[in-house]
Write a structure and sequence with these properties.
CATH superfamily of the largest domain: Periplasmic binding protein-like II
CATH architecture of the largest domain: 3-Layer(aba) Sandwich
Structural class: alpha/beta
Order of helices and strands: HHHEEHEHHEHEEEHEHEEEH
Number of helices: 10
GO molecular function, one term: DNA binding
Radius of gyration: 32 Å
Protein name: LysR family transcriptional regulator
Largest sheet: 7 strands, mixed
Pfam families: HTH_1, LysR_substrate
InterPro entries: LysR_HTH_N (IPR000847), LysR_subst-bd (IPR005119), WH-like_DNA-bd_sf (IPR036388), WH_DNA-bd_sf (IPR036390)
Number of domains: 3
Family: Belongs to the LysR transcriptional regulatory family.
Helix content: 40-55%
Distance between the termini: 59 Å
Amino acid sequence: MDLRQLRYFVAVAEELHFGRAADRLTMAQPPLSQAIRRLEADLGVELLHRSTRRVDLTDAGRGYLARARKILGEVDEAAHEARRIAAGAVGHLTIGCVGSATYSLLPAISRGLSLELSGVDFSFRGEMLVPDQAAALRTGEIDLALLRPPIADLSLTVLPLRRDRLVVAVPADHALAALRQVDVADLADADLIVHSADRRSVMYDVVLGLFRDAAVEPRIRHEVGETSTLVTLVAGGLGAAVVPEPVTALALDGVVFRPLARPAITVDLAIAHRTDRTEPHLARAVSVVQRIVRDAPA
C-alpha cells in the first residue's frame, strides 16, 4: 500500500477538484492526476468521475474514502505515539525506595514526575532494603531504585544523588535526649534498634562499622525490616537507633533526633537501574529525580 497515493486520493476526494487538491498538497496538478490514475489501475476500479467542470466520487470511491481516512488516521496516530515514545513521554515505571527516601523524597519525586512526565504511568514501592531492590531491578519487578550503596552488581548502573548525615533517634524521655549531640561512646550502654542483619541491610553494616571504628560494643536488642517500624519502636521506648537524617521527616511523638558528634558521618543515596535499560522515558525519569534531589533541602 502506497500511503502517498492514499493521501493524494483523500485530498482530491475532499476537495472534489484536482487544482485545489494539488495546492493543498503543494504539488503540481499533472503528477497528482497521474498518481490517482495509477491508484485506480492498481485497484481495478474507478474511484472518481471526471468531467471538464467537476469531479465526483463513485460508489467505490466513497467506500474507499472512508477506509482511507481510517488508515491514514491510524498511521498518523502511530507516528505520533512513536514520537512520544522516542521523546520519553509515555510508558510505565515502578520505583522502589529505601525507607529514608520513602519519607523524605518520595512526595516531591512523585509530584515532580507526574508534572514533567504526565504521559508516563508511575507506581512506587517504599521501605525496600537494598538487596531486595537489586533483585527486583534484575527481574524487572521495579525499573528504578533509590538505594544506599555499595551495591556489587555489574548489571546495574548506579548514579550518586547525595550524601546524608547520620543522626541518632532516641525516646523523648531517654537520658540521651538531653544532649545536644550524641557521641558513639554515649551509646555504649543504650539498647539499640537496627535494620535486619538477616536481610543484609546496608544500614546494618554502616551502624556496626560505626561502632567498630569507635571501639564500642553495640547492645542490639531489636532488628527490624522497615524504617517506620524502627522509629515506632524508638517512640515506644525500646531503644535508640542510628539513622540517615532524612528519617527525621517521619515525625512521631515520643522520638527526638540528635546529630552524631563530629566528625559527621554520612551515607550515600543513589539511583539505580539495569544497565541494559535504555528507554527514553526511563532516562528522562532519572534526570528529573536527579534534579529534584539536587534541589531538595539538605
